[in-house]
Design brief:
Radius of gyration of chain B: 20 Å
Structural class of chain A: mainly alpha
Strand order of the largest sheet of chain B: 2-1-3-4
Number of domains of chain A: 3
Largest sheet of chain B: 4 strands, parallel
Shape of chain A: globular
Strand order of the largest sheet of chain A: 3-4-5
Order of helices and strands of chain B: HHEHEHHHEHEHHHHEHEHHEHHEH
Radius of gyration of chain A: 19 Å
Mean pLDDT of chain A: 83
Strand content of chain A: 5-15%
Distance between the termini of chain A: 23 Å
Order of helices and strands of chain A: HEEHHHHHHHHHHEHHHEEH
Number of strands of chain B: 8
Number of helices of chain B: 17
Number of helices of chain A: 15
Structural class of chain B: alpha/beta
Mean pLDDT of chain B: 89
Helix content of chain B: 40-55%
Low-confidence stretches of chain A: none
Oligomer: heterodimer
Strand content of chain B: 5-15%
Chain lengths: 283, 414
Amino acid sequence: MTKLGGKIRWAIMISAFILLVYGGRFFTLTNNIALPVFNCPYNLDAVIEGSCLYITEWSDYLTSSNILADLGKLFLMYGATAIGILLFGKLWCGYVCPFGLIQEVLYKIRNFFGLRTITLTQKHKDYLKVIKYGLLVMFVVGLGFCEICPVRFVIPPLNGIATRIEVGIISSILVLGIALFSERFFCRICPLGAFIGLFHKITPWRIKKNCTSCTSCGICYEVCPMDIKEIYTEREKEDVTDSDCIFCNKCIENCPEKEALSLSFGPHKIYKSSRKKYYKNNL
Amino acid sequence: MDIRFNKRKERFDRNFKRVSNKTLEVLKENDLEYHMGYFYSCLENLFVHQSLDSFSGKPIIGTFCAMVPDELILACGGQPVKLCGGNYIAQIAGDEKAPRDSCPVVKSTVGSFEMKLLPVYEECQLAIVPTSCDGKKKMAELIAKYVPTVLLHIPALKDEEKFNDITGMFYGLIEEIEKRTGQKLTKSSLKKAIKLTTSINKEVYILNNYKKMTPSVISGSHAMAVVNAYQYADREVYLDEIKKLNKHLKGKLKQKEFIKKSPKRILMTGSPMVFPNLKMPLILEELGAIVVADETCAGDRMLADPINYRENSLDAMVKGIAMKSILPCSCPTFAYNNDRLFRLKQMVADFDVDGIVYNVLRGCLPYDFEVRNVEKLSEELGIPVIRVETDYNTEDTEQIKIRLEAFTEMLRMK
């Protein structure tokens, strides 16, 4: 278990994508659990549903009259989500989320053609933070986030399920368009990610930094799709996990210094940076 | 007047060769079958035979310090050559042109230009001077009389937020280089250049790993000469040769042909040590210690950090180069330079260091300022440090030898 990054992450992401989006065509689970990823429930073929709908429309599910009859089902849905969030935190974003994969593929396409990227300034980032928490409130209170959700007009059509033309289609075109030019743009404003991020302090998965071996070359900050600066400026603390971190592990893959950055589960360091890995990834 | 100048130049030339040759002789004498022929010939060609054969006719672009990115020059079809002077004779030649208290690097560079001591100084099309220390800044003004000079602005603070502006400056530099070499920089040529330097960087890293071993298979001064030769070599040939060297060292490791059994391991840091001024490491090795780690800017620092670019675009590559040139650089000319202390701390652990030798060239203030910080660090780590102030002059060799002998003796007693 020393190489969890790079190819293994892509393998997990692609298989999760196939399973989550097209899985229902091959087999069905009788008891449906829900995972904290953006996998639209309007996609009827999903073998495992995303819990986004159940979080945003909790009032429909938790206050319905036959709540006792559905107790088992509700427990599976909300229980699996809660355990998933507490145990894996934002690892869902970097490893499982199907919409995350779509964005990364877009990024790869743009990179292939060598198009220019948009560099976001600090001002943009501040605005995006406001939008993110605004969407989070909308999402948790249940003000019909699904109506403007960009995922709804991306994932179901990918599986050949037509959705009604609504306002949301504009947001999905907008988000995908920006994501083409700015890596994982939606993850910056994703309300589900922000929701999981609220619990980031108690998850056992951490990004750790050895401040002595760090040369502050800034590569981690440069490759970070979320532009987390602390990982580069930190010079004292060992734990550099940020609530925005989506665990894409790009910083660890690209860090040239010996064990300067590592992904750890509790006290165990699972994926460490090293010069050897750096040359493997970059030469 | 002309005759007098010519006579003087002849004398300087003769002595210049003598000094360069002496260092090479000592290196060759202590060579334990390292198979370093190519690296010696690189240095010999340039400094003793005074020929430009190793550059195969490419336009020569002079650089200074560790901050000027060679990749941009290589991508424009030029040959980067470091012009920082290390020769005592050139220092004497530069004495009149530069102020008395300026450092020997500046003096010997100016002297080399003034007396035309090496053909590279005459042939070079452009000199790129980073605004690192005050000496280098004012030196740019002095050498502008002899060669077209361009300043590369290095900020005094490492501020990553302003990096987009800094990247713009590197584009300006590219334009200047393109004008001199007559070849346009393209995405593919830059990519190729970055790949070349990253490959060299990797080989130097492997070479450093041999130095980390106890017992070691290569002595520090020889490794230093190998890295020094990088600045004066055709980069593609250099890559092949250093690969061969590493292969050879691997063979030596298998046959257990180690140098000395249990020498005291020294970390060399401080002012730049440019060939032929390898005085300090050679003295240390004569005294039975070995220089395992080298944190000087003409040595390992120059090749310590790799370039990373995030995307497949020219913008990203230039930004990656700009970041590599400035952010991890531990030059004391940056206002806050904690990075250097962290790096030294890591090196002490990595290379299993017994003592630190801090070389201060006379007049090199930024390094002298940081002695205090390094002393504090060494106290914290329990590793002794000695500050040695000297210049390119060899007259003080015996005094330095006595001090370093006492130092190594103390390390042995510890």
